[in-house]
Design goal:
With 300 residues, this protein is an alpha/beta fold. The protein has two domains: 69 residues, membrane protein fhac (Ubiquitin-like (UB roll), Roll), CATH 3.10.20; 171 residues, Rossmann fold (3-Layer(aba) Sandwich). It contains six helices and 14 strands. Strand 10, helix 5 and strand 11 form a beta-alpha-beta unit. The longest helix is centred in the N-terminal third of the chain and has 50 residues. The protein starts with a helix and ends with a helix. The relative contact order is 0.06.
Length: 300
């Protein structure tokens, strides 16, 4: 009996001790949360007071580059920042709005120079081609495209030469842009006069075959059509090499080609032309041959 009574007393003591520990832990957590909240509120209040100081009021708003209609347009969108605190506005929101309003812009950087100056720097997308889509829903609209495949209008862009491409559908865009990238990467021989800028136009048919139109530097307004076939990156170098060999041979003969067919390149058996090997079969139709046929037709 006495033993049973002692056990009950010990159990009550343990329960009472556990309750006190629970209350102490709860009090500690509450005090910790209250202290943290007080510090946070103090910081917010201090930040609010500091942001209202005249020292941090924006006095200068700049856009770089400063020239052009687009810079003026962007400046009008951020001019409202003047007179506001440099600490109390979202630069990300402004950058997002500008990029949405002007798709020609590729990058925007917002810089704060404490205590009272902000500068917005932007860079336009660089067009690599002018695209004509033969899609009914696009109504033959002309758009510029950059290397990322982003479409935009020619507004605000500096005038520069870019090749024009005609596409049957958007599935043909990626390989065509890859072709242009490789073409401009390969520096043409000055002797052969196949310079990157001579690439005037690219047409892609419904089967994905590519035809490139090269502007002849020596003859104003005259161009040569290159039947490239289906573009594959692994065969680009061989086709380009074959074209340069043919181009040099035409120069030696003082001739210009109306068409050069590279669909047969590469093949297993190489062909020797002008002491250089061309892997595959190239079909060339000289411009003079075409003119002779036209003259005979007119005579008859």
């Amino acid at each position: 009996m006495e033993r049973h009574r002692k056990q009950k007393v010990i159990l009550r003591t343990k329960i009472r001790s556990a309750r006190w520990r629970g209350w102490a832990h709860l009090f500690y957590r509450s005090f910790k949360s209250l202290a943290f909240s007080s510090v946070l509120l103090g910081l917010i209040f201090t930040w609010h007071r500091i942001s209202k100081l005249e020292t941090f009021i924006i006095k200068s708003v700049e856009v770089k580059p400063q020239e052009g209609i687009l810079s003026s347009k962007i400046f009008n969108q951020i001019a409202h920042l003047k007179g506001k605190s440099i600490l109390n506005f979202s630069s990300r929101k402004i950058v997002r709005q500008i990029k949405n309003n002007v798709p020609q812009i590729q990058t925007v950087k917002f810089k704060r120079f404490f205590p009272d100056r902000v500068i917005l720097e932007y860079r336009l997308r660089k067009p690599v081609a002018k695209v004509v889509l033969s899609l009914k829903e696009k109504n033959g609209q002309v758009r510029y495209v950059d290397e990322e495949g982003i479409f935009f209008s020619g507004e605000f862009l500096e005038k520069s030469f870019v090749p024009e491409i005609e596409l049957p559908n958007l599935n043909s865009l990626t390989p065509t842009l890859q072709f242009i990238k490789l073409w401009f990467k390969e520096k043409g021989s000055e002797e052969l006069q196949i310079s990157p800028i001579s690439l005037k136009k690219i047409r892609v048919n419904q089967w994905g075959e590519l035809t490139a139109e090269l502007l002849e530097p020596s003859e104003a307004g005259r161009s040569t059509e290159i039947f490239w076939g289906i573009f594959e990156e692994k065969t680009f170098a061989e086709k380009r090499n074959a074209l340069e060999v043919v181009w040099k041979d035409l120069r030696i003969k003082s001739m210009q080609a109306e068409t050069v067919n590279l669909r047969g390149v590469p093949q297993e058996t190489p062909v020797v032309l002008n002491q250089k090997e061309v892997v595959g079969r190239v079909i060339v139709r000289p411009m003079e041959f075409t003119q002779t046929l036209q003259e005979k037709t007119l005579l008859h």
